[in-house]
Design a protein that fits this description.
Blueprint: H1 15-21, H2 27-30, E1 51-54, E2 59-65, E3 70-72, E4 75-81, H3 83-92, H4 94-108, E5 115-124, E6 135-141, E7 146-152, E8 157-162, H5 189-199, H6 205-215, H7 219-228, E9 244-248, H8 257-260, E10 266-270, H9 271-278, E11 282-284, E12 290-292, H10 314-327
Parallel strand pairs: 2-5
Antiparallel strand pairs: 1-2, 3-4, 4-8, 5-6, 5-7, 7-8, 9-10, 11-12
Helix pairs in contact: 3-4, 5-6
């Protein structure tokens, strides 16, 4: 495991640069209210926020203090109870209290175990009762994803855990006792292996961040896949973003890096169809017809007669051809 000390920031990235690495839409930062270019968009007031969400890629990033990170059960965790903290802030720094409220509202909009990104900060962190604000001296973007492992709105207690949800040692301290009959919540081993392979590669940190986001179905890959299909499920036409998955037609491990980030290699599918597509129980012909594997015998999930909302184009055909030949369970 990576100890908290190893995560100590060694450089100071601007907030703008952190969001740029995550492929956030920064148009709003780059122009003023009159539409004129801003010479240094990193100095805009939005850079003082403690968390950010990007609608296009559906990513969330939180600024977390390194000094508050701890180790539990082999994982790095960041757990805070802000009830008293908020009360003191209201008295000493009302403007900072508004930022804290926005931070908690952002957390409240997440689902439990939601995957997020974390920017680790270090510097002079002010106490809630201080009249002077904190001063960040170093800031980095953690290349490893985190997840929201606990949220208790009544006491404003939240916890982020480094890594994907469901891995060993990620159960929050206030979780109910484990029941042997409960379904397994272990993450896909191939997902963990792929992300680890990205971390140890010799690519630039910027490229690593983009590849991690793409492997998680986030970032520019997801937004470009959705845009390619008019922000709808490629089969059902569903528009509920939370229900859509950006599936790779040619699996991650079989791809070159440029293929992994190519939206032509993606298909936006509702979760059920995504799961069937991922394991090769369904695939699609070039004219859009859904092809069901003879191994798919579940009559409850009706797939007969389904088809893509449009035929795939020439570039998409090469990736789908790989899926039909190498992933689809034809016999």
């Amino acid at each position: 495991m990576t100890p908290p000390e190893a995560l100590r920031p060694t450089e100071k990235l601007t907030v703008y640069r952190v969001l740029e690495l995550l492929d956030f839409d920064l148009t709003f930062w780059e122009r003023d209210q009159n539409g004129n270019p801003i010479e240094n968009p990193a100095i805009k007031g939005r850079s003082f926020a403690w968390s950010f969400h990007d609608d296009a890629s559906e990513q969330d990033v939180f600024m977390l203090w390194h000094a508050e990170m701890d180790e539990r059960d082999g994982r790095v965790v960041y757990r805070q109870c802000w009830d008293e903290f908020l009360r003191d802030l209201e008295k000493s720094r009302p403007q900072t209290a508004k930022r804290a409220d926005a931070f908690l509202k952002h957390i409240s909009n997440l689902k439990k175990d939601a995957v997020v990104r974390v920017s680790i900060v270090e510097g002079n962190r002010a106490k809630a009762s201080d009249t002077q604000s904190s001063k960040v001296e170093r800031r980095i973007l953690d290349s490893e994803p985190w997840h929201l492992s606990h949220w208790e709105p009544l006491t404003n207690t939240f916890e982020f855990t480094r890594g994907l949800p469901g891995a060993a040692g990620s159960t929050p301290i206030d979780a109910p006792p484990d029941e042997s009959s409960a379904p397994s919540d272990e993450p896909d081993p191939s997902l963990l292996a792929d992300i680890n392979a990205i971390h140890v590669s010799d690519q630039s940190q910027t490229e690593k961040d983009r590849l991690v986001a793409a492997r998680l179905g986030q970032g520019r890959f997801r937004s470009e896949v959705l845009a390619r299909w008019e922000h709808r499920c490629a089969v059902t036409g569903a528009t509920t973003k939370e229900a859509l998955r950006a599936s790779h037609c040619k699996p991650w491990r079989a791809c070159e890096n440029h293929e992994r980030l190519n939206p032509a290699n993606g298909l936006p599918l509702v979760a059920t169809l995504d799961a069937l597509f991922d394991v090769g129980l369904i695939t699609f012909a070039n004219d859009g017809r859904l092809l069901a594997s003879p191994h798919f015998t579940d009559t409850v999930i009706a797939v007969e007669g389904l088809r893509l909302r449009r035929p795939i184009d020439t570039e998409e055909m090469s990736y789908m051809d790989f899926h039909r030949k190498e992933i689809f369970r034809a016999d």
